Structure prediction request, 227 residues.
Amino acid sequence: MRYLLVEDDKALAGRTSAALIDLGHDVLHATSIDGGMTLALDERPDAIILDRLLPDGDSTSIIGEWRQAGLDMPIVMLTVQAALHERIDGLDAGADDYLAKPCDPVELDARLRALVRLRDRGNGPAKDVLVSGDIELDYRRREVHRSGKLIPLQPREFKLLELLLSHAGEIVPRSQLLSEVWNLRFDPRTKLIETHISRLRDKLNAGFEGDVIETIRRIGYRLRKDG
Prediction:
């Protein structure tokens, strides 16, 4: 696979690149947000390793631009600061995973490969479009429609809806949402899920009667199959 490493620490970038190359991968390297944006758009790597703090700013700002440009490759953020709220900020911005520096390149590679496999399963030819009731999710165009109306969603909202649509009519537990949407193996005991579900609800229900997402108190959420 080909990875893009966006890291301004030359020594760390050199060690990480060398280790990933030894593991059989090609590695592109940028040292700034602007350089990372250019390489991501031009080269379309399989996954991106993104340092949180770069010389030209906080790299969480670039993730939304990548997603809006149609780049759906997994993104793993790296930082020397690994406080819970900072990990959540990175995940909310659209990153798929979060690791504290310095990290083991073997673990980093394993996480990247797992995220690529998960993305590829979701974008397979048999799942180009996911439909339940009057809601349609198009993987290729990264678009969602309800009764023909375009519903603009942020990347995390798109992932949430994808998971709920995949289990339409079934309860999706909180633990599964945290694992598959945020790649968290623990409940941060914040309003993380509730906040995103609320935003998704507002967008899906606008102009329609009733609530398409049902809350199962203390357990999870269920997408109503009848829309």
Summary: Residues 40 and 104 are 24 Å apart (CA to CA). The helical segments are 10-22, 33-43, 60-68, 84-92, 105-122, 155-166, 174-181, 192-205. The first helix runs from residue 10 to 22. The mean pLDDT is 85.
